[in-house]
Amino acid sequence: MAIGTAPAAPLTPAVFAILLSLAEGEKHGYLIMKDARNPQGGGIHMGPGTLYGSIERMMRDGLVEESGVSDDERRRYYRLTSLGHAALAAELSRLDAAVASARSLGLLPHGGQS
Amino acid sequence: MSLPALTNSRLESIYSGALRLYPESFRYAHAESMRQTFRDALHDASLPRRQLIPLVLRDFLTSIVKEHFSMLRDTFARPALVFNALVLAGLATVLALALYAIPQQLLRRGADDPQVEMADNLVDQLEQGTAAENAVPAGKIAIAHSLSPFVIAFDDQGHPIASQAALNGQTPTLPKGTLDYVREHGEYRFTWRPGGATRIAAVVQRVHGDHPGFVLAGRSLREEAIRQIVVKQMATLAWIAMLALIFVGTAAFGWYTRPKVA
Description:
- The complex is a heterodimer.
- Chain A is mostly helical.
- Chain A has one domain: Arc Repressor Mutant, subunit A (Orthogonal Bundle).
- Helix content of chain A is 48%, strand content 8%.
- Chain A is built from 4 helices and 3 strands; from the N terminus they run H-E-H-H-E-E-H.
- Chain B folds into 3 domains: 69 residues, no CATH class; 58 residues; 103 residues, Beta-Lactamase, CATH 3.30.450.
- In chain B, the strands form 2 sheets. Chain B has a 5-stranded antiparallel β-sheet with strand order 3-2-7-6-5, sandwiched between helices. In chain B, strands 1-4 form a two-stranded parallel sheet.
- Classes of the chains: A mainly alpha, B alpha+beta.
């Protein structure tokens, strides 16, 4: 993907979980991993290799960037770029449409949580 | 030694050692952060070690393969590098085809030389009034097996009147239209397949004068076919060698111009 263009949906589970975690604000690696592990964060059990491999590619694609702020020189904090926000919004919209479709087919209860 | 028996610092040390297996550029960019993330995970009471260790091990094995593939792609599959390699491979292919086609054509055309002289001589004799039976040497040549050149004289209607050539005991017949072409153009040089696998380098010329007709001089192409196979093998070897050189050169160039660690 060229820098400056939103990635084509769907995003990989790891990329989606990282974007979702960083939507709350700047975070370091382990906090992102922990968020991703939660069911609300995507339920993705990823380790440091997958996390930093994904972050490397997301930085190259312009979705996230290092914030430059750190409480510990060994920790790096990351944040979403505007393109990252757009990519997350597009993915959420896609998922929302899929969920709505599933509800209309009676696969999910109306008005409740899946 | 069971996992719980390993101290956190020992596990960190093992993980730090394992990080050396990642590609250099990835390691340089993220090893310290990965070590810190692993350290944070070890100190997280909500993540039992019996879950953490298999998770990290599985992640390590899959991500290390992925990052090495990514490194190989960044090093060797850069568009400019691939484009140059494809252009060079295309040139090598054209060159190899020329190495095959040019000698093949020269061999085939060279195979006509003795027959041209034989046909010229026979035409001269027939136009000076020598009878075809006397001008055509006596004896039969089995053209399916023999490498000896031979001649056939035809009358103006295309019927053989004297022949050295025999195929299955008969004088072989020319392809339809051959003599009409010679009647119009004076000469025709072609590869004649009179039957079976026999291939003949044939030259047909027009005879003018009081007794017009045609003469054919021919010779088996068996030896030329063997030489053409040798040429084809040498051209194929040259092509493979050029492609191998391009591959090695591209790989070496890709490696030395790979994105360097700052």
